[in-house]
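ok so for the tutorial part 2 we go from a plain amino acid sequence to predicted structure tokens. step 1 is just haveing the sequence, like this:
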Amino acid sequence: MSEAKLRIDKWLWQARFFKTRSLSAKQVSGGLVRLNGNRVLKPATAISPGAVLTFPQGRIVRVVRVEKLGDRRGPAPEAQTLYTDLTEKQDKPPRNPSFEGKGRPTKKDRRALDLSRNLDS
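step 2 — the prediction. this is what the tokens look like for a chain of 121 residues:
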């Protein structure tokens, strides 16, 4: 009995790593996806359970092991059963810039700045 296989772009789409199948195909054909450590350039490359995929997603590089092949693109909990995430955990997520209390200068600050500029010339 032959082992079940599925196109790599279709699996990435079904596992909800990419919003559309054409986006996943573009990542694969751009040479950004690796299958078991080897770069894949064709979206029609077949994968089977046990394969390890490495690809960028946002600012992180994801490493996942294919556990099973999906029949459809279902809800997220169903999609998460298709793979095991092997990505190293980040220490903490990057922080958003925070307010430092500076904002616009007051009229007094602007006058002092104008005076310092006039003295320099």
